[in-house]
Amino acid sequence: MRTAAVVDAILRSPEPSIRWKARVEVLGENARSPRLTALGEEIRTSPRIRALLSRRTQLGRPGTARAVYYKWQGLHWVLASLADLGYPPGDDALRSIRDRVLDFWLSPAYFHEFEAKTEAAAYRQRGVPIVQGRYRRCASQQGNALLSVIALGIDDGRADALVERLIHWQWPDGGWNCDRKPKADTSSFMETLLPMLGLAAYARERRNATAAKAVDRAAEVFLRRRLAWRVSDGRVIRPEFMQLHYPLYYHYDVLGGLKATMKIGKIRDRRCADALDLVEAKRLSDGGWPAEKRYHRGTAKALKSYADHVDWGPTSPKQRNDWVTVDALAVLAAAGRLRV
Q: How far out from the chain centre does Cα 47 lie?
């Protein structure tokens, strides 16, 4: 009964993106239907979207890296938010933002490689260092850009270059890592999640077998560890993985891992069971889920480190957060654990 009540509550949310997520990701409605297309137009003109795009004229001009990647208000994060919120695809008004982001992440430095034997040497020049035969690159950046331009339908052909770079940098175990210490030999969850999702979106749209194969390899980074536990001794990899957040930005938690496995069609893999159990156990008495912690420091109209353009709801282990709730409902429904 509480499932029906909380689904009804989010379907009546004043926030159109919450309603869009509920209909598409929880109820499985066709995102291209007339009803969802109309809802997409409501999203486009919503106060949240207007706030996210409020600085696009300024930040859309060529300038410093700060305008692109500034946490969490740079253009990189604006595009990522739009992609997650159901913003309607194919909007030419986003071209200036897309160009600024892609110009940055496909600059010549990301095509320059050099060998380095020590961590210190890996920092001595611009480019992508190769340490112990592995490319040390924060691939979440190119991965997030790829995911954004595909989801928003604004690729101008440069998605191919992002894909080429990501596959070129992929580690033997299937993921990515920017750790420049020679002893680092295992992929990072944070650096692997977004490249996997970006490549999956590209593979679906282009029916690209090479990208799909790269996604399958990346998925094993998470599935081998049951999305949060070490292979070696079964311990939790990081305590923060056990807590629920929204947005994740480039971070990781167990719900984010489950959402990713849902997006790539692997949510029913038996190795997701423990993570699904954990999410189910965090359900509140009203049927929703909380944002237990957050990675942003409130909102700000001017650029402020780690602030966002918009508020993402309450952060409390005892209070429902609708952004977390709709994601939790989506993964449980996709896993066959929830009747809606």
A: 22
Number of domains in the chain: 1
Residue 87, in any domain of the structure:
no
Range of the domain at 338: 1-58+237-340
Q: Tokens at residue 280, please?
A: 């189910």
Which among 146, 261, 164, 250 has a CA at the least distance from the CA of 205?
Answer: 146
> What residues are paired with 135 via a beta bridge?
130
In tens, the pLDDT along 47-61 reads 999 999 988 776 655
Sign of CA dihedral 15, 19, 25, 29: negative
Cα dihedral angle (275, 277, 283, 285), rounded to 10 degrees?
Answer: -170
Q: Is 240 helix (H, G, I), strand (E, B) or coil?
A: helix
Show the tokens assigned to 43.
């999203």
Q: Do residues 279 and 289 touch, judged by C-beta distance below 8 A? A: yes
The pTM score is 0.96
Q: What is the phi-psi region of residue 10: left when phi exceeds 0, alpha when psi lies from -120 to 50, beta otherwise?
A: alpha
DSSP state of 229: B
In a domain, 247, yes or no: yes
Strand ranges (E), 42-126? 113-115
The pLDDT, as a whole number, for residue 301 is 85
DSSP string, 270-313: GGGHHHHHHHHHT--TTS--B----SS--B-SS--TT-BSS---
Instruction: Identify whether 254 is part of a domain.
Output: yes
Beta partners for residue 290, in sequence order: 320
The answer as to whether 101 is a domain residue is no
Residues forming a β-bridge with 129:
114
CB 69 within 8 A of CB 107: no
User: Cβ(211)–Cβ(203) under 8 Å?
Assistant: yes
